[in-house]
Here is the input.
Amino acid sequence: MSTLRFPNEFAWGVATSSYQIEGAATEDGRGESIWDRFSKTAGKVEDGTNGDVACDHYHRFREDVALMKSLGIKHYRFSIAWPRIFPTGRGRLNQPGLDFYGRLVDALLEAGIEPFATLYHWDLPQVLQDEGGWTRRSTAEAFVEYSRVVARSLGDRVKKWITHNEPWCTSMLGYMEGRHAPGLKDYRAALAASHHVLLSHGLAVPVIRSESPGAEVGITLNLVPAEPASPSAADHDATRHFDGFFNRWFLDPVFGRHYPADMVADYIAAGHLPPEGLTVVQPGDLQTIAVKCDFLGINYYNRAVLRSTAVPEARNEPRKVFVAPEKDWTEMGWEVYPDGLRELLLRVHLEYRPRKLYVTENGASYSTPPGADGRVKDEKRIAFLRDHFIAARRAMEGGVPLAGYFVWSLLDNFEWDRGYSQRFGIVWVDYASQQRIPKDSALWYRSVISENAVPTV
Ligand code: IFM
Here is the structure.
């Protein structure tokens, strides 16, 4: 069998997030988050579920750390629930909440697993949302204080920090499409939110560095390579717009290029911004956002193929078309397109030159259940991961400084507006009994990690 080797120091890991796995929603002083409120609002989550219990990781974290150790996993990306630390967003610190993460980090280190902590993976304290959430500058300021407290407490042991997970989702899914908490459908609010999220990142980076000496700090963006459905000028323009909306709106300011002028013009033309543009930007903000990071995290799941549309009610927004046959989609309805990861990594490397890159998430939703023998034979997930690992390796051959790869996700978990209907885990979770069963993909991943190589056939 031929294999593709990775560099010795390559960091293989798995990723999760607080609201998706922890449960214990009201324990030890945790405050309400926007996802508690949103998921309990009728009609917001497909199967009517919420994260109250989820994978009960809050109580079972030692078992989950032991499971990771048994799978040979050496790097774990998790997120911290802001409402556990500051139940009302700022002010009164909730020590038991902070202590939970201290115990988790200690257990990880004891198991030889390096913690990568994400400070914001969407569970904003509801009290801050009541004040306007990310549409308000004060939320960015509260985030900095929250980051300071967490980094001060864990920064002697956590040396890899991610400020935000997927600002596009926070702002666009949460404030424009309304599919995620807080569930608003207001483009202007979403653009203001995107700015305050990025601003909070820029403000927090130096604070984290000062509280966690020697730490590496970065941000994770979800990026989608875009291509036109046809050679027509209109489809090319639709692609430019989608790329600006999804990718450049976040990449450009983070790498010191300001917000893309073509997008500001598009947004003004569509009435998403006033004629004066993005008025929430204050002098100095763009320099703050452009703070030099130690790495960029990329979450990759799929590409977009774009066709222009002149439908007036869609405000001429480009339309995504599906070119791959349905058999090549995951259960999220996302096309499996491994080469998009290679293209994306090369593009970001060549155009933006981050010091270092991690794939902070990549994985697939397939609901393959345990068979009569108790085994979960999730061959499709193995093929998905293998092909994406190979694509990442090819990008590295092209010069991309990729330092690690985190599979989404360790456990089946609460998939936001899709509830528990989607299973991304390499470990099966029986939600009734909370039993964990490593799927075949987890066992396969263990051998990839131990060989530090991916079988190519
Ligand atoms: O489950 C999510 C995760 O929280 C953020 N990135 C995408 C995953 C799959 O949708």
About this structure: Residues 187-211 form the longest helix (25 residues). The chain is about 40% helix and 15% strand.
